[in-house]
Amino acid sequence: MRKYDALWAYIQGLNEEKLIFRFADVEKIAGTPLDHSFSTYKKELAQYGYAAGKISMKSQTVLSIKKESD
Predict the structure, then answer these.
(1) Of 57, 62, 50, which Cα lies nearest the Cα of 25?
(2) Residue 2 C-alpha from the chain's centroid
(3) DSSP string for residues in 6-63
(4) Cα separations (Å) of 38 from 8, 21, 56, 69?
(5) Which of 1, 20, 41, 43 lies at a 20 to 30 A Cα distance from 56?
(6) What is the pTM of this model?
(7) pLDDT tens per residue, the chain (70 residues)?
């Protein structure tokens, strides 16, 4: 199991155009804190039809994910 598989499964089940998460939400869903490694893992979102937007590690407040165009 990869680090954020639980988060990807959760996101895939939502089928929303735009998602906004607090870092604490990601930690709860994924079972692991959001850290600098997410920059690498976020590429996996494309497999689920999404792309991560701007992420601020400094503020640790919001993660925006937009559905990719078909």
Answers:
(1) 62
(2) 13
(3) HHHHHHHHH--SEEEE-HHHHHHHHSS---TTHHHHGGGGGGGTEEEEEE-TTT---E
(4) 12, 14, 11, 22
(5) 1
(6) 0.81
(7) 688 999 999 998 887 888 888 899 999 999 998 888 888 888 888 888 888 888 887 888 887 888 876 5
